[in-house]
Design a protein that fits this description.
globular; 41% helix; 8 strands; binds adenosine monophosphate; 15% strand; 215 residues
Length: 215
């Protein structure tokens, strides 16, 4: 499966893709995490941190270069957080044949609630929310026992800027793929386990024959 996943911030793309990766051959390629892991790396365009802390996009050239290196020889992946501009989409079509697009929907109020209350694992980047997806032990990651922290671009002002950029730049990319790819749409307002059930049921036919995700 070669898939792209879209949806507003806080839709839960990352947590569902991580769960998919743990249970299948599909690799979750998350551009935001790759950039966070390399935020202080100096490049000809500056360090990613300079853009990320403002909620701005890092330059297309930089993310295109990353994605080309990361996707080399990957047979099965779900791309999360890329492409986010039409130029990135054009570049992606020159290096990979996509088979399906997943779209997870939530409203702006849900985005703000989920992101302002979100905590992430400082080690593996897994996301948590006190109501939507609480950790088993408060403040500690279920998977690697590391501490949960707030992301430094999850303050309300930066979130609102990220929503505006999403609407201006990413929505046209989604429209572009609507005409080109099979689309799976998920209502992501509902509780985490219900969303996972829909997501896994819709994805399963795209996986290798032997893979069972549902149940
Ligand atoms: P995310 O974790 O997906 O919210 O991404 C965090 C930040 O990384 C974004 O606010 C951007 O600054 C940057 N970023 C992630 N993906 C991209 C992309 N495809 N193009 C440009 N900037 C990106």
């Amino acid at each position: 499966m070669k898939a792209v996943i879209f949806g507003p911030l806080g839709a839960g793309k990352g947590i569902h893709c991580q769960r998919l990766q743990r249970r299948t051959e599909v690799e979750h390629v998350e551009m935001g995490k790759i950039l966070r892991d390399n935020k202080d790396t100096e490049t000809p365009y500056g360090a990613p941190r300079e853009y990320m802390e403002e909620g701005e996009f890092v330059p297309d050239e930089l993310v295109n270069d990353i994605v080309e290196r990361v996707l080399t020889e990957k047979e099965s992946f779900i791309l999360d957080g890329y492409p986010r501009t039409l130029d990135q989409a054009e570049f992606l079509s020159s290096i990979a044949d996509l088979s399906v697009m997943v779209y997870m929907h939530v409203d702006d109020e849900t985005t703000i609630d989920r992101l302002t209350n979100r905590r992430i694992c400082e080690s593996c980047d897994e996301s948590y929310h006190p109501e939507y997806k609480p950790p088993a032990t408060e403040g500690i990651c279920d998977f690697c026992d590391a501490e949960l922290v707030e992301r430094n671009d999850d303050d309300e002002e930066t979130i609102r800027r990220r929503i505006a950029i999403y609407e201006e730049r990413v929505v046209p990319v989604i429209e572009h793929y609507r005409d080109e790819l099979e689309q799976i749409t998920i209502d992501a307002e509902r509780p985490y386990e219900e969303v996972w059930k829909d997501f896994s049921t819709a994805i399963e036919p795209h996986l290798q024959e032997s893979t069972t995700l549902v149940g």
